[in-house]
Amino acid sequence: MQALNTVLAYAEEAAHHLETDPGGFVGVMVDWAWLIPVVPLVLMFAIVFFGKRLPLKGWELAEGSMAFVAIYGVALLIANWIEPFTVEHHVEIARIGVLPGLGDLVIEWGWVVDGLSIMMYTVVGVVGFFVFTYAKGYMEGDVRFTFFFASFTLFAGGMLVLVSSANMMQLIVGWELVGVASYLLIGHWWEDHANNAAAIKAFITNKIADVGLFVGVIIAGITVGSFRFTDVLDAVEAGDSALARVGFWVGLAMFVGAMGKSAQMPFHVWLPDAMAGPTPVSSLMHAATMVTAGVYLLGRMFPFYQAEGFGDDVKLWIILIGGFTLFFTGLLALVQDDIKKVLAYSTLSQLGYMTAAMGAGAYTAGLFHLFTHAFFKGLLFLAAGSVIHGVHSNNMSDMGGLRKSMPTTYWTFLIGSLALAGVFPLAGFWSKDEILASVKADAFGLGSAADLVLVLAILGAFVTAFYMARTVYLTFFGEYKGEGHPHESPRVMTYPLIGLAVLSAVAGWVLIPGVSEGFTHWLEARLHNPLDGPLHFESIDWAVAGIGTLMALLGIAAGTRLWYRDAPTQLERDRFRIPVLYPLLEHKYYFDDVYMNGIVKPTAGPIARATNWSNNVIIDGVVNFFGATARFLSRYVYGWADQRGIDLAINAAAAAAGETGSVVRRVQTGKVQQYAGALFVGAILLVIGFLIFG
Amino acid sequence: MIVNQFLVLAALLFSLGIYGVLVRRNAVLVLLSVELMLTAVNINLVAFGSMLQESVLTGQIFALFVITVAAAEVGIGLAIVVLIFRNRSSSNIDELDLMKW
Amino acid sequence: MSWFETGWGLSLTVFLPLVGAFVVMAIPKARERLVKSTALAFALASFGTSVAVTVLFDFGGAEKFQMGTDLTWIPAIGSRFHVGIDGISLPLLVLSTLITVLSIVYSWNHWPEPHNPKAFLVLILLLATGMAGTFVALDLILFFIFFELVLLPMYFMIGIWGDRTMIRPPGFKREVETRLYAAIKFFLFTLFGSAFMLLGFLALYFKADPHTFDMIALAEAGRAGVFAGAFGGWVFAALFLGFAVKVPMWPLHTWLPDAHTAAPTVGSVLLAAILLKLGSYGFIRISLPILPEQAQDWAPVIAILAVVAIIYGSLACLAQTDMKRLIAFSSVGHMGFVMLGIATLTDIGINAAVIGMVAHGVITGLLFFLAGSMQHRYHTREIARLGGNQKLLPILGGILAFTVMASLGLPGLAGFWGEFMALLGSFNPLEGLSLGLFRTAMVIGAIGTVLTAGYLLWMLQRVNLGEPPDEWTGKDLHDADGFELAAWSPLVLAILAIGVFPRIVFGATDDAVVNLVKSAFGG
Q1: Burial class (CB in 10 A: 0-12, 13-18, 19+), B32
Q2: Given an 8 Å threshold on Cβ–Cβ distance, is A680 in contact with B30?
Q3: Dist. CA C506–CA C503, nearest whole Å
Q4: Measured distance CA(A175)–CA(A162) in Å, rounded
Q5: Pairs of residues, one from chain A and one from chain B, whose beta carbons lie less than 8 Å apart
Q6: Has this prediction a pTM greater than 0.90?
Q7: How many CA atoms lie within 13 A of A369 on its CB side?
């Protein structure tokens, strides 16, 4: 008898995949790195169940988990910088059958500690730490303060599950956890159905894209016989022909998944609506978690997209979709009145940059932009939140002149905006320049597509600077147009702003070609290092950098020209300046209308009703028809055959019995003495009978 | 031993009993008549028992059984009669036709 | 404990509720507390023995039938009292005994009209015997008897304690009470299927040489090709009808929404959690091993019907206005995933089907509990009239949100594995099956998960979120009470546990499934 516990016990670690064994204290740290996703998830439950009884209502647990992740992440980052290492752990969770020729299919929990994942731990931990701190001030007095931090911790925890996963199955787990946490957070104020609608939109849009991820993961996993990234990438390296046959579809399907989370066109529609959530949510969602997941996936699978004959045909799609997204969603930011929506469209545009970089083969540049963007976009959202907190409105038409009343917010927002616009020497300059240089270098040989995207990217730099200038002027310059007296936010909110502002300024310095190349070395430390190939990061391309900077400055200048002088009135001005384009932009290229009227409403309306009708009327009608026919038949069978045929004989017999009975019943008088008399007479007769015949 | 005289006595008693059971209207008297019939049977049993001279005395023992059962029967019968009398203020058997459906 | 392992354990699990039913019948109706405690005690005892069976089960040999008894029963037709469990039936057995206990706990102070707890509990206990018996029977006649045993109690449960609103079904001239229409529909539908099933069983019996109803012997005969050809095709069709009605597969599903909607809460729970599984279990236990060839012929049909059910069920859900009916239709879609898994005829697919069955039992059972409790409080199931439930009843609303998340297949919760593994299996179906068809099915199934998320979240939004309508403000609505929490928390825990650590189910099923597929299809 094999006892139950051996089945339920964790199987031993299936593999301990080491490239370089760090050993010593670092080795212990790496072996315990599974705590990074687990601590937030466990604390999430703790917040749900005990949060309300704690002195700070569960915030301390949430903040503690982020501090833990940040410290752990930074420690790993430093250790990895000094001595690069790559470690993967796998723990078997279940076996589910055999794939012919490939062995058992295993579900595993794994964690990967390499340059890429450490970079993500650090970003999530550090940005998360600042945002959680800020959120304490922002959410003060909220009805569901505790629950908010539980969901928020789940959000970060899910992202950490995603980036720590050593296999695609776990990636899906993290992917969906992030999705559901975003649903909870966007719909945090669920008393208002508009917020719920936004939450559902985000979840469903992501879910549609997830079909792609599911399909991609299934195809890759079944073909290779393992869900581990390393096994899939090993197969790529070995030129596995089975995988190569389905390579294009795997690559495309996974990219569709990435498009959903990273909000690439045409799946971008959920992101601006996600602004319905509290601002700290937007900040974390747009900076460190969720939207970076898609880019991270492309980074993790990069060797697959890089390899000839596997996913390389998808690269063209990636770069084009990235290019279109970065330019066209950037334009949309120009016409927004809601300050958060400006930033949301700006995020879409920046994600387009990252995606385009991945498509262009610029592994380092794409992830570098993810890294720097996390800091300055997190900062911008928090600063915008601080403004909203002071003004009690999201609309820039209610703002203006805030640079006097909210100095800290103003200065930090300005730094964030300049970093986003790519002004030297702030973070955005370095990363955006890397992308432009990589796209120009066109390592994948995409030819005219790369040229097109380069043009779009350079124009995008202009657009970015232009709309950020507009936002800064409308918000902080001119006259105050709102109600009440705006005030600077409390310190618990401004300190994170300052922290992130510092990081936004300096984060770019980790990758200055020729001067400090730390970031490249972080990313190098992984199995199947894509940088081993011909794709080294580009050295600075002065021409491109010059044009990029020029474009940014032009954008700022144009913005200043348009909006600095007569700040109070220029909201109307948007409508006159670009007569043809404006309606298009205002309706967001009609994406939402098409989706709503073309897909959602027909599905939820006529199609669903028709299905239900067919169920109730056609299928049930058939069923009831049979029932009715049976009843109809039964009436005839009963009325004719039964009642008049068979029953006749039966009834005759019964009648005869009844008649007989009514005659004979007279004998029964109920008088005991008559019965006894009969008895006696009977006995006498019997005796006589015996005497005569016996 | 001659049993004729016992048998005649028993036949007379039994006939009396039959007469009483069939004719009397009072339930108590009907019961008494039943007792008479039982007594007649007892006499027969004892008479034949002593005539056959069995070592196990079957006839006599059976007579004892019958007496016991008769006592029990009268006990229950009288109880029923009393109850009927209480319910209907009469013990006239003719009125007791509840057994008729 | 050897007597326990040599078969009495299983018999105890199966027949303790039956004994309980007789004991409860003997208790006077007026002594309600005693009636309830006795019923609960017997259900708990049955659950306890099923747990003991699990503990003593040899997981190293999960592919073999264990703890079996094989006694002469009806020698005239060679039917034997043959019971035993393997890794496939074990999780379902435990699930059925657990759900019985929870149903009784939940019923403690939630009696549907007309009251009469005694009769209600007797019916639950009878159902328990039928459900557990079906999962352990290894003789076709025994299987059939248990399979049919659940029919009558459920008929009475719906017909007596069901919903009394008047409806006029299409094709009817007059209005009828929902409960009567639903009960009769349920009964006739199932009986219709099982008549064919019995025919199939008899055909197998007479074809096998020597005549036998023993599943194991029949499976061997099936492997040897005794049932090959057109004969097997007809038998498979007959069995298919019997099981497909129970699953239910499109288009034989229409009894389900009516029965679920009309049934009292506990009835819906038992119906969704266990009764539906009898059909899919029948496919795995009887159709596939005994008729492997025909299973391969029929697999594309099953796959197509399954995919239709997934999409069709989801779309129908979007149009529902009645909360219970919506959940009922969601079962059609979810069981579609189970059937898709079975249709692949692979280890992965059938593993997916079993975990999908367990997960659906736990999740949808809980959803029906919640819907019942909400109806208990609001006296309506109209989604349009509900709203802001999260605000009015925070605990109940929270559990509802959690369960909805589980139902839409969130990873980390139980529902994910069944769905995802079924899709995984259909990418690579058994050799010889049409790749194109199954891969299309995979993509359509994956799209089905989107629709599933759509209707569930939509329902959640309309029922749980937003401001409560004026109708309910100020009403004295009490949140979940102790009995409700006691009945729900094991299910919540099970959802989490299976989701986080699916080995709880896979650990038992995998060997059995691999063995089944290998012996039946040589895969």
Answers
A1: middle
A2: no
A3: 5
A4: 6
A5: 27
A6: no
A7: 31
pLDDT grade, residue A534 (50/70/90)? very low
Complex ipTM, two decimals?
A: 0.86
Residue C416: list chain A partners with CB under 8 A.
Answer: 173, 176
A350/A359 Cα distance (integer angstroms): 14
Residue A674: burial class (beta carbons within 10 Å; 0-12, 13-18, 19+): middle
What is the structure's pLDDT at A566?
A: 57
Q: Can you say whether the dihedral through the CA atoms of C214, C218, C219, C221 is positive or negative?
A: positive
Chain B: residue nearest A668 by CA? B100
Of A215, A615, A623, the CB nearest to C443: A215
Structure confidence at residue B12 (pLDDT):
94
Calpha distance A98→C510 (Å, rounded):
9
Q: What is the pLDDT of residue A14?
A: 45
- Name subunits touching A (3+ CB pairs < 8 A): B, C
Residue B97 pLDDT: 65
Q: What is the pLDDT of residues A51-87, one digit of tens each?
A: 788 888 888 888 889 899 999 999 988 888 888 788 8
Whether A219 and chain C come into contact, CB under 8 Å, resolves to yes
A13-20 β-sheet, strand order: A13-20, A86-99, A103-113
The beta-carbon neighbor of A671 closest among B23, B94, B101 is B94
How far from A377 is each of A508, A545, B100, CA to CA, in Å? 14, 22, 103
Sign of the C-alpha dihedral, residues A658, A663, A666, A667? negative
Closest CA to A136 of A36, A66, A37: A66
Amino acid at site A653: A
Say if A448 is an interface residue toward chain B (CB within 8 Å): no
State the best of A96, A154, A195, A243 to mutate against chain C, taking most chain C CBs within 10 Å: A96
Chain A residues with CB under 8 Å of C319 CB are 608-609, 611-613
C-alpha distance across the termini of chain C, in Å: 37
> C: neighbours with 3+ CB pairs under 8 Å?
A
Separation of alpha carbons A179 and A274, rounded Å: 12
Q: Rounded CA gap, A493 and A486, in Å? A: 15
Q: Is there contact between C and B if contact means ≥3 C-beta pairs under 8 Å?
A: no
The pLDDT tens digits for A574-602 are 544 666 677 677 777 777 777 777 777 77
Distance from C-alpha of C62 to C-alpha of C85, rounded to nearest angstrom: 9
**A660 exposure class (CB count in 10 Å sphere: 0-12, 13-18, 19+):** exposed
- Is the model more confident about A487 or about A282? A282
For the cut 60, the answer to whether the pLDDT of residue A503 exceeds it is yes
Q: What are phi and psi of C74, to 5 degrees?
A: -125, 85
Residues of chain A contacting residue B94, judged by C-beta atoms under 8 Å apart = 671
The proportion of chain A whose per-residue pLDDT surpasses 70, expressed as a percent, equals 90
Query: Which stretches in chain C have pLDDT values below 50?
Result: none
Cβ–Cβ contact A677 with B under 8 A: yes
Cα(C264)–Cα(C270) distance, integer angstroms: 10
Of A668, A669, A677, the CB nearest to B22: A677
Lowest mean pLDDT among A664-678, B64-78, C348-362: A664-678
For residues A162-186, average pLDDT: 89
Reduced to 3 states (helix: H, G, I; strand: E, B; else coil), residue A182 is helix
Contact C412 A173 (CB under 8 A): yes
**Under an 8 A CB cutoff, do A668 and B101 touch?**
yes
Q: What angle do CA A56, A70, A157 make, to 5 degrees?
A: 70
Sign of CA dihedral C16, C19, C25, C29: negative
| Gap between the Cα atoms of C452 and C314, Å rounded | 6
